[in-house]
Amino acid sequence: MAATVVPPHAAFFGAKKEIGTRSSFSPSISAHRCRKHSLNKVLAVMAPTQPSRAPATTGSVKHGMTMTEKILAKSSDRAKLEPGENIWVNIDVLMTHDVCGPGTIGIFKKEFGKNAKVWDREKIVIIPDHYIFTSDERANRNVDIIRDFALEQNIKYFYDIKDLSNFKVNPDYKGVCHVALAQEGHCRPGEVLLGTDSHTCNAGAFGQFATGIGNTDAGFVMGTGKLLLKVPPTMRFVLDGEMPHYLLAKDLILQIIGEITVAGATYKSMEFVGSTVESLNMEERMTLCNMVVEAGGKNGVVPPDETTFKYLEGKTSVDYEPVYSDESAKYISEYRFDVSKLEPVVAKPHSPDNRALARECKDVKIDRVYIGSCTGGKTEDFMAAAKVFLASGKKVKVPTFLVPATQKVWMDLYSLPVPGSGGKTCSQIFEEAGCDTPASPSCGACLGGPRDTYARMNEPMVCVSTTNRNFPGRMGHKEGQIYLASPYTAAASALTGYVTDPREFVP
Amino acid sequence: MATTQAPVPVSTIRASSQRLQCPIKTHSLHFATNSSNFDKLVKASLSLKQSRKKTLTIPHATPSSSPSPPTTFHGQCYVLGDNIDTDQIIPAEHLTLVPSKPDEYKKLGSFAFSGLPSSLYPIPFIEPGTDSTQYLIIIAGANFGCGSSLEHAPVALGAAGVQAVVAESYARTFFRNSLATGAVYPLELEQEGVNKQCTTGDIVTVDLERNVFINHTKGKEFVLKPIGDAGPVIAAGGMFAYARKTGMIP
């Protein structure tokens, strides 16, 4: 006897025509400028925002949709839809990790029965990554819980770790979930990926709809393979111009967040297009989409192209169908940037939108530098840092912590030659510069974690970090001060002991 | 539990903890084999825009079923600024606590707002040595709950005893998780700057019938945006509980 589910009514999340609480989060929300800008000397890089383009007036023109709208339409078997609609979406991949996995599993078992089976054992990816290398008993227990579940349900993709003393002897272990998802071929254009983590939006770099959800929503997906989602309107970010050699994608996204504030993209999709975006490699595109959530965004997307397809070669055997915004698609707003005029920026304590030019912070003395996380701990991020150390030839003046995101990244640090170094690897350059030895791959101290987490800030300190958030207490101590920056800026700052514009070293 | 002046229906008080103490009887649901049934129902429910009230009516409470959703909350308030992120609501080191385990749920509550810098918020949200709060209503500015998409944030507040948050605006993940878990009522104010007109410890009332927020200590009244259909979901104890209660799920 099979039971069926009548889905919660659309109005429960606020149907678009009804005056429910949800309608108050529709596109008209205005961004709140919550603090004063420091004087910013960057000139003429942003055109004034434009109202959405007028809809086509001839009846014969097809209804145009943005990439996000199209992906959601495809995944909900609809020919078309509009922002604001609540729709049932078929999920292609559900990801969870050690922090949210146990809670999600608890809800799944409670709601669907302790003998219930997940909707598809090949579409769930369980990746322990947050609190791994710690003696915290609960953290260790949480990895055991997800392992038991993975075995019970015969989950195909469970990147297990058993021996915490040496990550290398765990052949399945990957590391940071978002980077692992990409490296293991779980991110594909046109698909819908949900994860129990705010930076799931990272995968939007592959031209898919990817966003973070809570345990209850994830428990629901685990049982049904579907979720009720509201279609977000899309904000368009056009980045054109040649990328200066001292800038990285992290500078671009910090620039954008500083422009629109931490609530500027709430409930919206952020679409990144333009010649600069096209010139970025996949890891840089991931950095861009990773911090969409820091602007309040629901998801970020980059149109897939040859760069995407090449990256995916050999990583996935699942067919995918790329999706692109229509010419006549409607955007809620458009921002244009001339990237060639931008300068390295940081986000000062205590908000990701507290943007300042790196060179204007040169008097800020720092205590340490942290290079790691899904945002800034990928191979390309370490390569960038290595280039700065190489160019300088000097040693760092403050403790410099390096936490590769995954096993693969760690191996790259020890094997790939850094261009222009005469065959040296990142690890050699880091050692010569006096950095700490690259640590076991995980989320590490990006979010503080248990007290014994490597590089956790247990006293008030000033840190320049390639991570994603700098709210009070983010890396541990409530009075810690975190300056978010690109790997170039982080490395440059390590060399001087002050927040430093990388142009000091990268000629 | 704080003493209140206005009568507060039983169902307001920690619907989520009720859920945990008296687990709802569950049935196994086989979705994989019933996707076609599921699809039919989904199409049926979504196509009936006009007559939706008829098709998926919220059943009227019979005398023997649970009381109707709460309409007022009353008590002391705790006042916050803008952009209170999830790490301030519940510091990441406590995320090893699994909310679906009753004792860890309680412990999570005891750490609610322990991430707030004491220089900005000298009054502790939870008295040291206790594990729940005397401040049943939170007043906040814009973008409350930004940061992580983890449910621990609204759940920690609910576990600590918070009944409602009254904010200028929310981060989408916090709002969505509040509904899904039924942990707290995420209410929105019509005007900006209300938090600047309130002080921690003020006696306040939230009235969901009149959609007003009253600060008795300051003698001011503010308009709330209606909670709408989200109200009964939270009153029932979250998404799953509501679906069961109204017969959407067996």
Question: Notable features of this structure?
Answer:
heterodimer; A: 507 residues; alpha/beta; 5-stranded parallel β-sheet; 14% strand; disordered N terminus; B: 250 residues; Aconitase, domain 4; 7-stranded mixed β-sheet; 9 helices; 7 strands; 28% helix; lyase (chain B); EC 4.2.1.33 (chain B); AconitaseA/IPMdHydase_ssu_swvl (chain B); 3-isopropylmalate dehydratase activity (chain B)
Notes on the structure:
The complex is a heterodimer of chains A (about 500) and B (about 250). By secondary structure, chain A is an alpha/beta fold. Chain A has helices at about 65-75, 100-110, 135-155, 175-185, 215-225, 250-260, 275-280, 280-290, 305-310, 375, 380-390, 405-415, 425-430, 485-495, and strands at about 85-90, 95, 125, 155-160, 190-195, 210, 225-230, 235-240, 270-275, 300, 335-340, 345, 355, 370, 400-405, 460-465, 480-485. Chain A has a 5-stranded parallel beta sheet with strand order 4-3-2-5-6. In chain A, strand 3, helix 3 (about 135-155) and strand 4 (about 155-160) form a beta-alpha-beta unit. Chain A is globular, with a radius of gyration of 22 Å. The model of chain A is unreliable at about 1-45 and about 55-60 (pLDDT under 50). By secondary structure, chain B is an alpha/beta fold. Chain B has one domain (about 5-245): Aconitase, domain 4 (Alpha-Beta Barrel). Chain B has 9 helices and 7 strands, in the order αααβααβαβαββββαα. Chains A and B meet through helix 2, helix 3 and helix 5 of A and helix 2, helix 7, strand 4 and helix 9 of B. Chain B: GO terms for molecular function: 3-isopropylmalate dehydratase activity. Chain B: Belongs to the LeuD family. Chain B: InterPro entries: Aconitase/3IPM_dehydase_swvl, AconitaseA/IPMdHydase_ssu_swvl, IPMI_Swivel, LeuD.
